[in-house]
Design a protein that fits this description.
It is a single chain. This protein is α+β, with helices and mostly antiparallel strands. It has 2 helices and 5 strands, in the order αβββαββ. It has a 5-stranded mixed beta sheet. A hairpin with a 2-residue loop joins strand 2 and strand 3. It is elongated and about 55 Å long.
Length: 112
């Protein structure tokens, strides 16, 4: 089942966490979510484009552990949104260890 961007956005907001496009404000409290459009594919048949398929990276930033990720996973699964496996990258910010857990979601424009 393909999800629209609106369905994805609604699922992200259902977490109750702060959700941002491309970049969070400097003083945003952890955990929070950032989503970015990273590419756009298309579905073709008979030499015609039938659907445009935007691809989003969803990042979950936390100073906690992978257990914090459950909130986002549950929201995506409840909404029926298919996502790739999460990968985590650690970094330091203001003497705190911050982990960016990220995944990718393929959406369908104007579609069901």
């Amino acid at each position: 089942m393909s999800s629209s961007f609106e369905e994805l956005q609604k699922a992200l907001e259902s977490t109750g966490l702060s959700v941002h496009r491309d970049k969070a404000a400097k003083d945003t409290h952890y955990p929070y979510i950032v989503y970015s459009n990273v590419s756009k594919g298309k579905k073709m048949a008979s030499s015609k484009i039938h659907r445009r398929l935007p691809y989003y990276q969803i990042s979950f930033y936390t100073t906690g552990t992978e257990q914090d990720l459950k909130t986002l996973e549950t929201a995506l699964e409840t909404a029926g949104i298919i996502y790739s496996d999460f990968v985590g990258i650690q970094g330091d910010e203001n003497d705190d260890t911050v982990t960016n857990y990220y995944t990718y979601v393929r959406c369908i424009e104007n579609g069901q």
